[in-house]
Specification:
Two copies of one chain form a homodimer. Chain A has a seven-stranded mixed sheet with strand order 18-19-20-17-16-21-22, sandwiched between helices. Chain A is globular, with a radius of gyration of 24 Å. Chain A is built from 15 helices and 25 strands. The first copy, chain A, is α/β, with parallel strands linked by helices and 535 residues long.
Chain lengths: 535, 535
C-alpha cells in the first residue's frame, strides 16, 4: 500500500482495483470530516475519474465466470476469514470510525455495530455453507430442476453515511450477500468515512488472497463524480445496484440503472410511523413517551428506522402523552450529526414543517458549541393538517426530529394510515382493551400493506439479523417490496437469477441439483416436499 | 351483457368494470382479424378512453383490502370454479380463438392450449390451498416472522398475441398468479383476440360472483391508447405490471412504470440459441435438422421460446447439418401468421438480415394465396459475421425464421456465446464423446449465465407447468432474472411483498404464522427447519 498519487504534493490514498492498491486516476480529491470538531481530517482520498471505474469493470468481468463456479465452501471460508481478520483490527477500525462519524465509541461502535458487522459476515458464511438459500426445486418425473445462482454481471454497492461498519460497502450485508451468491462487486465508499472503509478493505484484500478467491472479487473506489456513477450503473458489465442513501440521489441512480435493464435495490427513505392507541396511552403515557424519544434519538436520529411520525388521538391520555413528549424532547441531549449535509437537510426540514403550519414544541435550532449538533426537535400537527398535505409531513430527515400527528378519532387515524407512503416499518402500540382491539382491527389491514415490518408494542430501531427479519418495504421505502437487505439468506436473493436445468443429465448438473444432497444439511424442494435427503 | 355503446350505429361490446359489463367510454373502436382469410371480423370492440381506466382503478382500490384478507380457500375456490366454467364452454372458446388467430383448432387450441390454461388455473388453486408459496419464516426465539403477501395495489396485465388462451390476460398464468396472491387485477386484452377474451371473461365474472370474491377482483378493457397505457402503469393505485409482448412496446411501458416506482415484469424477447456440438452432429445430423425445424416452425414460429439461432462448427458434419436444414426449410409448410403486424415485422427482419450480409438459404418471401402466410426461412452467417454485429443477428422476429451461425471452431463458438444477450432459454446438443464433453465444459458456464432455462439435447418449445420450471431470463429477455412467469408457486412471487411481523402476539398474526399449521400441509421454515408441524 505504498503507491500513492499526489495532489499538490499531498499523497492521495490509492484505490483497490484488480487486487492491488493502485494510484487513482484523479478527477478530484476529498478529505473526511470530524463531526465532533467540525474540522476536516488530514488524509486525502481520491475522487476517481472514469478510467478507474472502467478498469474495475474490466477486472470484474474477467473473473465473473471463475467466481460463479467457486465452491460454496471457499466463499464461506472467505467470509469467515474476513470476519476473523477484522476482529483482530477492531481497535483501529472502531477508533477511525469514531473519528470520522463521531458516533459513540463504546456504546455504539464497539458494543453494537462492530459485533453486528462480524456477526453478519459469519451468518452469511453459514448460509452459504448450508446452501438452502438457492431454493433447489426438483421435479424428478420431468427431470426439470431450478435453483438461484449468480447474476452473471457485476454488483455495484453504494454505502450510506450512517453505518460506517455494518452497512459499509466493503463489509456490510450487501457485500456479504453479493459475494455469497458468487457475484463480483465494485464498492463505492461513503465519503464520510473513507478511512474506516480503507481499514476494512485492507482486511478484505488479505482475506481474498488467503482464501483463494479471485483478487478482483471485491474492488473499492472511494468516490466518483455523479455523472460517472450514472455511467457505471448503466454499464453493460453491471447486473445490479444496491444503494442505501437519500431518496433524491437514489431515484436518479434508479432511473439510470433501470433504463439500462439493471436491477436496482434502493433503500430510499422511511418515516416509520408509530400508532399509539388510546388504551395503552391511558395505562402508561409517560413510559411510552420516553420509549418513543429513546428510539427517535438513537444514533442522533440517524437511522433509517427512526420513528419520525407519531400518531395518536386527541383525548386526555393523548394530550398527556404529547405533554410528556414535549418535556422529554426539550431536555438537552448530546451527540453529533454525521456531516454538514445532514445538518443542512435537517434545517430545511424544520423550515418546511414550519411553513406547512406544524407547531414547534421543542428544539428547532442548531446547538451552540463545537461540532455539528442540533436540538432534539418535536413538531405537532392535527390529523386534518396531515391529510391536507401528506407529502410534506412525511418527508424523511435525519436527526432527532419527530412529528406528532394528533388525530380527532380512530376514523381519522385510519385515514392518516391510508395516506402513508411505503415505509420500512410501522409500530402499533395497544392495550388489550376492547376499544384498542377494535381500532387495531380497522387500522392493521391498512398499515400492513404500507410497510415491510409491522411491530406490536415495540420500537422499530434495532434490526435483528435473523432469517425472519425484513428490512425493506413498498416504494418509496425501497424499489421492490419483495426484497430485504437484512436477514440471511433472504437478502441474498437480490443478487441472484433463477437457473433452470431441463433434461440435463446428472454429470452436467450443479451439485445442489444432483442425486446426492451435497452436504446432507441443505434443504431442497423435491416433488413438493422439503427434504434434506438424497433423491 | 346487453348494454352496448354504439359507433356509427354498430353496437360496440361493453367492458367489464366493477363487476358489470358496461358501455365503454369510446376513444375509438376496433375489429379483430381472421389471419386465414385476411379479413376483419364483424364484431366491434371498444378502444377505451381514460374514463374507463380511471373507473377501473377506482373500483380496484375499493376492494384491495377486502381481497387482501380473503381466505386462501375462497381464492382457490374461485380459480377452480373458473376452470370448471371454462371447460363447459370449451367448444365456443376454442372456435373463437381459432377464428381470431388461425391457430390450428385440433392440434393446438383444443389438444394443447385449452387444457394447459385449465391445468394452470387448477395448479394455481392447489398452490393457494397448500399455502407453502408464502414462505412463512419463523424465528420463535425472537418472535419475528415473515411471509409473502399481496402488494397493496392493482396489478395490470397486458396479454400477448400468440397465446389466446394460456397467456390470455383474463385466464393465463399472470392472472392466476396475481389473484392467487390477493391482488386486484386490471386486464388489457390483446386486440388480436377480443372475442376469445370476452368469452373467457364471461366465465370469469360468473366464477367471481359464485365464489363470493369481490366483483371488481378482475376487470377487463379491450384496448386503450398508448398514452393512456403509460398513465395507467404509473398511476398511484397500481403496484405492478405484467407485460408479454414486443421489446419496443415493453421497454416504453417499463420505463413509465419503473419511473413511478412500480414493479414491471416484462417478457420482452428471446432468440433461444441452440448449440449443436460436433460429436452429436456426426451421429445424427439429419434427425437433428428435423428436430430443429419442428421446434422452430411450431405455431408458425410464433413462440417466445422459438429456437431462432442455431450455432455449430464448420466441419463435415456441420456442413451436412446445414444442407439438411436447408432442404427441410425449403419444403412448403402451411400455417398463418397472427396478424399483418407480425408479417410486416418478419419482412423487416428478412430485409435487415439481408442487408447485414446473411445468406438466404430458404424462403424469405410472403406466400401467395389467401391469409397471412410467409415462407419458412433460413439464413446462414459465419461466426465472424455474428461477432461483428451481434445486435442485428439476435433480434427476435416471430415466424418460422432461423439464423444458422456457422463458427470456425469451439473457441469461436464460446465467443459467440459470450456475445449473446439475455435469453429465456438455450439448448446444448452433445454426444458423450470426449470432444463434445470438453467443449461442453467450456461453453456451459458462459451460456448458463445468459439464460433462464438451459436444456440438454432438447428443444425449448413446450414449457411444462411445474414448480421447477423457469420461464424468464436476464435482460432483455425479461426485466428481472429472478422471476418466472410459468410454474407455480414461483410465478406468484412477482406479485408479492414481504410482510414481517415483529413482536406480534398470536391473535394479531395471520394464520400462516400462528402456532398451528393452518392446514397441516403447508411447509414453513421454523428456526431453520422446513416443517409441516405446528410450532
Amino acid at each position: 500500500m505504498n503507491e500513492f498519487s499526489y495532489d499538490n504534493q499531498k499523497p492521495v490514498f490509492p484505490v483497490l482495483i484488480g487486487g492491488c492498491w493502485q494510484p487513482a486516476s484523479l478527477s478530484d480529491t476529498f478529505r473526511a470530516f470530524n463531526p465532533a470538531t467540525a474540522e476536516k481530517l488530514p488524509e486525502v482520498y481520491p475522487v476517481s475519474g472514469w478510467e478507474d471505474l472502467e478498469k474495475a469493470l474490466t477486472e470484474s468481468s474477467k473473473i465473473k465466470l471463475q467466481l460463479a463456479s467457486t465452491s460454496p465452501d471457499k466463499i464461506a471460508g472467505f467470509l469467515n476469514l474476513y470476519a476473523d481478520l477484522l476482529e483482530k483490527n477492531e481497535e483501529a477500525i472502531t477508533e477511525m470510525a469514531h473519528l470520522e462519524t463521531a458516533l459513540p465509541l463504546k456504546s455504539r461502535l464497539k458494543s453494537t455495530e462492530f459485533p453486528r458487522m462480524i456477526n453478519q459476515l459469519r451468518q452469511a458464511a453459514a448460509a452459504v455453507e448450508e446452501r438452502t438459500w438457492c431454493q433447489a426445486t426438483i421435479d424428478t418425473r420431468l427431470n426439470i430442476r431450478a435453483k438461484y445462482g449468480p447474476l452473471g454481471g457485476t454488483v455495484v454497492i453504494f454505502s450510506p453515511n450512517n453505518f460506517p461498519l455494518a452497512f459499509n460497502a466493503v463489509a456490510g450485508a450487501d457485500l456479504a450477500s453479493a459475494v455469497a451468491t458468487g457475484n463480483p462487486v465494485i464498492c463505492k465508499a461513503h465519503p464520510g468515512h473513507p478511512g474506516t472503509t480503507r481499514l476494512l478493505a485492507e482486511g478484505l484484500l488479505r482475506a481474498l488472497e488467503q482464501s483463494g478467491l479471485p483478487a478482483s472479487t471485491v474492488q473499492l473506489l472511494y468516490h466518483f463524480r455523479n455523472e460517472d456513477g450514472f455511467r457505471l450503473v448503466s454499464h453493460p458489465a453491471v447486473a445490479a445496484v444496491a444503494f442505501t442513501g437519500s431518496r433524491a440521489a437514489g431515484l436518479k441512480l434508479k432511473e439510470a440503472a433501470e433504463r439500462a435493464g439493471k436491477l436496482f435495490y434502493g433503500e430510499l427513505s422511511s418515516v416509520n410511523p408509530v400508532f399509539f392507541l388510546p388504551g395503552i396511552l391511558k395505562q402508561k403515557a409517560g413510559e411510552l413517551a420516553l420509549e418513543q424519544f429513546s428510539s427517535c434519538s438513537l444514533g442522533c436520529g440517524q437511522f433509517c428506522t427512526k420513528p419520525g411520525l407519531v400518531i395518536f388521538i386527541n383525548d386526555d391520555p393523548g394530550r398527556r402523552f404529547l405533554l410528556k413528549l414535549q418535556q422529554i424532547f426539550n431536555q438537552p441531549l448530546s451527540g453529533y450529526l454525521l456531516s454538514p449535509a445532514v445538518l443542512e437537510n435537517l434545517k430545511k426540514a424544520v423550515e418546511r414543517l414550519k411553513i406547512a403550519g406544524a407547531v414547534l414544541l421543542a428544539g428547532g435550532n442548531q446547538n451552540g458549541g463545537t461540532g455539528i449538533q442540533f436540538q432534539t426537535t418535536l413538531f405537532a400537527i392535527t390529523g386534518e393538517q396531515f391529510l391536507k398535505d401528506p407529502v410534506t409531513f412525511q418527508l424523511e430527515a435525519f436527526g432527532t426530529l419527530a412529528v406528532a400527528v394528533v388525530v380527532d378519532d380512530a376514523e381519522q387515524m385510519v385515514r392518516v394510515a391510508e395516506c402513508l407512503e411505503g415505509n420500512l416499518t410501522a409500530s402499533i402500540y395497544f392495550s388489550h382493551s376492547d376499544e384498542d382491539e377494535e381500532i387495531y382491527r380497522r387500522l392493521e389491514p391498512v398499515v400492513r400493506l404500507k410497510v415491510g415490518r409491522l411491530l406490536n408494542n415495540k420500537m422499530p430501531t434495532g434490526v435483528a439479523v435473523t432469517p425472519a427479519m425484513h428490512h425493506g418495504g413498498p416504494y418509496p421505502a425501497t424499489g421492490h417490496p419483495g426484497f430485504t437487505s437484512v436477514g440471511f439468506p433472504a437478502a441474498f436473493l437480490r443478487f441472484t437469477a433463477r437457473h433452470c436445468y431441463d433434461n440435463v443429465p446428472e454429470e452436467h448438473l450443479p451439485e445442489e441439483l444432483r442425486r446426492k444432497n451435497p452436504n446432507g444439511r441443505m434443504w431442497r424442494l423435491v416433488d413438493g416436499t422439503w427434504t434434506q435427503s438424497d433423491l
